[in-house]
């Protein structure tokens, strides 16, 4: 099957793109890496009137550090992150996530912004960046705004974009020194979509922890204060204090009825917690040090 007919345009800069978004009639899709949009067009799951190719806009490929925040343009690719072509304030955590996304050809073209806007529940960046406390920067012809990623992703394949608005950048805060990070996903085989994802960000000496469970049939399950999973207290011994029953109860409360599904997700989460506890020194670098 081939796509239905559509118009194609390639704006040269961001103001031109935003102006076109504001005036376009009918349905419009933005194309960056095309790793999700391409198959959807071919299968006619989407039939836009206009496709705007945003790959030629320099601002969307930029990466910078603003204080203790990493700012990545929407068209930064997974491979850019994997290969260290952009700064890293997470001590290698983002590179580890990037290198496990699908296959290298996909990572060469797929973009961080495209992944977040597609909002597939099984996507790596959706879960991992929520765990890292990321924000998205949204722009339209009338201005810009920022939104926490967990508020931006409103459902499976659904995000909080207003008409004429697009995601232009992702803002990722630096991990404080001593932060433990774990990210584990379960797939039938390497490169396939995940059936369960666990992302763990623990600051044991500050007694804080954030846990996100992804690849569920809704928005990721976010525990901004994960102490309930560790007997009410997070410390250096957090891995030993993990309460699988509390995690199971959380999933059951979120609507996951099947006990086998819950078991898989709890097991993956337990592995992410164990990985965080055993994290190498490279994941506890000083804030601002590049990968």
UniProtKB/TrEMBL annotation:
Keywords: FAD, Flavoprotein, Oxidoreductase. This is Caffeine dehydrogenase subunit beta. GO terms for molecular function: FAD binding; oxidoreductase activity. Residues 1-177 form the FAD-binding PCMH-type domain. Coiled coil: none annotated. InterPro entries: Diverse_Substr_Oxidored, FAD-bd_PCMH, FAD-bd_PCMH-like_sf, FAD-bd_PCMH_sub1, FAD-bd_PCMH_sub2, Mopterin_DH_FAD-bd. Pfam families: FAD_binding_5 (PF00941). It comes from the Bacteria.
């Amino acid at each position: 099957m081939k796509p239905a007919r559509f118009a194609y345009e390639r704006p040269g800069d961001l103001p031109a793109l935003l102006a076109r978004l504001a005036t376009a009639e009918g349905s419009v899709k933005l194309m960056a890496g095309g790793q999700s949009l391409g198959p959807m067009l071919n299968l006619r799951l989407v039939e836009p009137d206009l496709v705007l190719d945003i790959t030629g806009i320099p601002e969307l490929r930029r990466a910078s550090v603003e204080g203790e925040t990493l700012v990545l343009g929407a068209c930064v690719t997974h491979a850019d992150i994997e290969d260290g072509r952009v700064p890293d304030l997470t001590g290698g955590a983002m590179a580890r996530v990037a290198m496990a996304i699908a296959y290298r050809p996909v990572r060469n073209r797929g973009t961080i912004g495209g992944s977040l806007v597609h909002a597939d529940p099984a996507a790596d960046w959706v879960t991992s960046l929520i765990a890292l406390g990321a924000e998205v920067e949204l722009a339209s012809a009338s201005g810009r705004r920022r939104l926490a990623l967990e508020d931006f992703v409103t459902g499976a394949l659904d995000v909080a974009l207003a008409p004429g608005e697009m995601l232009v950048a992702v803002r990722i805060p630096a991990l404080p020194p001593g932060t433990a990070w774990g990210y584990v996903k379960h797939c039938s085989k390497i490169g396939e979509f995940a059936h369960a994802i666990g992302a763990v960000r623990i600051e044991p000496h500050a007694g804080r922890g954030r846990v996100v469970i992804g690849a569920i049939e809704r928005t990721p399950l976010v525990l901004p204060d994960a102490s309930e999973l560790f007997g009410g207290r997070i410390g250096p011994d957090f891995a030993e204090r993990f309460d699988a029953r509390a995690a199971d109860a959380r999933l059951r409360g979120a609507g996951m009825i099947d006990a086998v599904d819950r078991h898989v997700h709890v097991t993956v989460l337990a592995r992410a917690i164990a990985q965080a506890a055993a994290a190498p020194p490279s994941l506890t670098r000083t804030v601002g040090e590049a990968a």
